[in-house]
């Protein structure tokens, strides 16, 4: 079946409110159009007869009224956010129009005017949103996700990408690390504060906040010291002077190769895409997709609704289309009788998924008769070392403890995450509590976890 051509109608400020009044349509109180100030009346900028003539040339009167009633109804649409060339995101809303089961797209403008774009269906709307983000460079990367990070650690990572962008401001497909990326604890902290208070054009932190509408936390120096030790222990950062210790004011750090490649894939960003749907069950639970196009495509996946951890995952243009398709279908509750979507999977060289990864994307089968595309698991990648550092209390017994403060150490730790003492080559023997199984500091008479007397 041949796809109908897409029509566009531009409404000047105040004309959407006029049409609602003209047809006697009352807009629901929780309607997102009210929050966008799109229903304010303005003096008519063109004569009513001219407006109605334009509308009749584009669509029948009864179809226009159906569209207006759909936009004014209580059913919440999908909120779409798009940012181009590092500019702040613009908002659009996607509505399912019944009984025709078309999708109407309403695009907002800074002057509170709107553009009505119709008719869309699942595949055509997916193409409209994803096609601008498909054209990316094929860069090799050792893994297609970064470790899950708490919001404060995620802000620290984005600040490092901003530092990279200051040294290498222009995208270069033949990039080579000809200039070192060095930092101190204070310069790192200052870059985080600059990003939190900066503009979208200046900072990836500001771009993420603009896309999601969720501010990242203010990272204190104390919190950043923790992330410094975490990054050093995971060999993402190294000390320029091996005789110094992490956390010292004068210590200078360099960004290691693996993290430098990841920062390259984050720093040269250009486009952003977000899809949100707020439920009406009283819990204000939000389901969302947030993506960023840089040298590669990234999706930022929260591990739960509270976003205690954020997983930056590298995806292909094919996967982006699959996930956007599924999201629109599920959120609008579409039961369309169109054919399954056939997306061509573009292989990206040098990016293989770890064997133990739980993130799976099932390819669309051409022989499948069901109109619903394959379900994509939202499960995040497997737990990575940085996540263990976020939750030290949930970790089981270690093989060594710090010789200075007695804190447990991971097998690969180079410095104690509590006091910063350098880990000796020979680990300190550990006594294990018979009651709770936690490590006991050498010389301790009682277990500090359960109080059991050491025999």
DSSP strand tally: 16
- Which sequence of strands runs across the widest sheet? 1-5-4-3-2-9-10-11-12
End-to-end Cα distance: 80 Å
Secondary structure class reads: alpha+beta
SSE arrangement, N to C: EHHHHEEEEHHEHHHEEHEEEEHHEEEE
Q: Name the shape in a single word.
A: elongated
pLDDT < 50 runs, ≥5 residues: 280-284, 334-399
Rg result: 27 Å
Give the rounded overall mean pLDDT: 77
- The share of residues in helices is 25-40%
Number of helices: 12
Main sheet record: 9 strands, antiparallel
Share of residues in strands? 15-25%
In short:
This protein is an alpha+beta fold and 455 residues long. It is built from twelve helices and 16 strands. The strands form four sheets. The protein has a nine-stranded antiparallel beta sheet, sandwiched between helices. It has a three-stranded antiparallel beta sheet with strand order 6-8-7. Strands 13-14 form a two-stranded antiparallel ribbon.
Keywords:
455 residues, alpha+beta, nine-stranded antiparallel β-sheet, three-stranded antiparallel β-sheet, 12 helices, 17% strand
Give the helix/strand layout.
Blueprint: E1 7-11, H1 15-22, H2 32-35, H3 48-58, H4 61-72, E2 78-83, E3 90-97, E4 102-108, E5 114-120, H5 122-130, H6 151-167, E6 182-183, H7 185-196, H8 204-212, H9 221-233, E7 237-239, E8 253-255, H10 257-267, E9 271-278, E10 286-293, E11 297-302, E12 310-315, H11 317-332, H12 385-390, E13 400-401, E14 408-409, E15 431-432, E16 439-440
Antiparallel strand pairs: 1-5, 2-3, 2-9, 3-4, 4-5, 6-8, 7-8, 9-10, 10-11, 11-12, 13-14, 15-16
Helix pairs in contact: 5-11, 6-7, 6-10, 7-9
């Amino acid at each position: 079946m041949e796809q109908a051509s897409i029509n566009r109608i531009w409404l000047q400020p105040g004309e959407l409110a006029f049409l609602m009044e003209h047809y006697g349509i009352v807009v629901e109180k929780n309607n997102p159009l009210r929050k966008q100030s799109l229903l304010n009346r303005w003096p008519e900028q063109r004569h009513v007869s001219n407006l109605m003539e334009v509308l009749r040339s584009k669509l029948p009167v009864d179809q226009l009224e159906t569209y207006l009633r759909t936009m004014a109804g209580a059913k919440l649409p999908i909120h779409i956010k798009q940012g181009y060339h590092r500019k702040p995101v613009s908002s659009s809303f996607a509505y399912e129009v019944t009984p025709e089961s078309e999708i109407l797209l309403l695009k907002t403008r800074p002057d509170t005017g709107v553009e009505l774009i119709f008719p869309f269906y699942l595949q055509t709307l997916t193409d409209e949103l994803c096609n601008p983000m498909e054209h990316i460079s094929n860069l090799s990367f050792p893994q297609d996700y970064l470790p899950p990070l708490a919001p404060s650690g995620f802000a620290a990572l984005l600040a490092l990408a901003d530092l990279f962008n200051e040294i290498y401001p222009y995208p270069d497909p033949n990039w080579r690390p000809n200039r070192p990326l060095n930092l101190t604890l204070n310069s790192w902290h200052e870059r985080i504060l600059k990003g939190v208070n900066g503009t979208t054009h200046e900072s990836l932190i500001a771009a993420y906040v603009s896309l999601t509408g969720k501010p990242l936390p203010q990272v204190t120096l104390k919190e950043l010291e923790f992330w410094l030790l975490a990054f050093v222990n995971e060999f993402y950062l190294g000390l320029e002077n091996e005789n110094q210790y992490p956390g010292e004011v004068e210590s200078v750090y360099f960004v290691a190769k693996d993290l430098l490649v990841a920062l390259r894939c984050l720093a040269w960003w250009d486009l952003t895409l977000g899809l949100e749907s707020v439920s009406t069950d009283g819990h204000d639970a939000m389901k969302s997709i947030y993506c960023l196009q840089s040298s590669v495509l990234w999706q930022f996946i929260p591990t739960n609704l509270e976003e205690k951890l954020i997983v930056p995952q590298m995806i292909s243009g094919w996967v982006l289309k699959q996930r956007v398709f599924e999201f629109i279908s599920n959120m609008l509750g579409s039961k369309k009788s169109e054919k399954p979507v056939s997306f061509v999977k573009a292989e990206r060289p040098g990016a293989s998924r770890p064997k133990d990864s739980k993130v799976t994307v099932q390819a669309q089968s051409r022989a499948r008769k069901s109109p619903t595309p394959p379900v994509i698991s939202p499960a995040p990648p497997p737990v990575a070392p940085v996540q263990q550092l976020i939750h030290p209390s949930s970790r089981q017994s270690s093989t060594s403890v710090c010789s200075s403060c007695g804190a447990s150490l991971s097998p690969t730790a180079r410095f104690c995450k509590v006091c910063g003492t350098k880990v000796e080559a020979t680990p300190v023997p550990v006594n294990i509590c018979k009651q709770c199984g936690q490590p006991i500091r050498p010389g301790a008479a009682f277990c500090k976890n359960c109080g059991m007397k050491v025999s």
